What does this fold into?
Amino acid sequence: MARINAITTRLNGVTGPEKVAIVMLAVGKTHAAKLLERFDEDEQKEIVRAMMTMGLVSGDMVERLLATFVSRIQSSDVFGSVAQAEQILLSVLPPERVRTLMEELKGAAGCSIWEKLQSVPDAQVAAFLAAESPQTAAFVLTRLPPAQAARVLQQLPRPLAEDIVKRILNLTPVAKPVVDDVERVLRTEFLINIGQNRMADNHGLLAEIFNHLDHELESAMFASLDKDMPESSERVRSLMFTFADLKNIDDAGIQILMQELPPGLLPLALKGAAPEMMDLFLRNMAERAARMLREEINGMPKVRLRDVEDARRQIVNICKELIARGEITASGEDDGGWVG
It folds into this structure.
């Protein structure tokens, strides 16, 4: 991306590809197409991805940006979108190439294959890498966030992990054809298989659905499953992550979780909660903050059970996101059932 960065190093706060994307949107598709031709394929992908996701850019930002490229230009708001990006691409690339490129960029909200890999459970990434050559495994780990790479490395056999670490130290720049081949394997032989496996096991999918049901409907559904499909019912229960499962989060994790909660959500969720759940949060707060939380809960008027359940589901979802990002961890007997 040297060409992109060279053009835009004088402006801060916006990435190089985003700056080029703003300029292209401002000058119109005809001129943008000519500009896009000047970049190689990887740079084009970065620019187009920026166009698709940036949304509204203020006129002031456009003006400051364009001042670095031309001495006089009239600024206006620009809006990056999928349609805008596609129109510019069609002005410079064959339709079939545009279709392929757009499908790749739009997949998982425009995520690259490496970004998609971040959402795959660590155990599955480790299993895939264990079947590949150590050199390939070393390269893949360098493309993952360090925290995820560390978790994956811990799940590999020790001799293989030691070999991979040494290869990372000696890793040299990888040629683009080799990178393309690795990405192809990840896309066609790994991620697709994972997607098919997820679809094949509908217990996990149903557990996710049940996590969002109100208590009355969830109870009714489980009663039906308990009667007709008891083994499946128990498996779905084991895969669910409920408000009560927050007790498997250590104190440091609860403190991180509380920092992410919107104001007013925790008091509502703790209304009528079991004493152990109340203590879970109170013991991780400063004395004054804990006293204020108790007073707020005790002074709260009657609330609908549905509102309390919704608040608890929101907290659970925030917790699951933090677990997926590796910012907090869970423990307990059932931790292997739902993390990841």
Summary: Residues 139 and 174 are 8 Å apart (CA to CA). The longest helix spans residues 176-200. Residues 114-200 form a domain with the Annexin V; domain 1 fold (CATH 1.10.220.30). The mean pLDDT is 76.
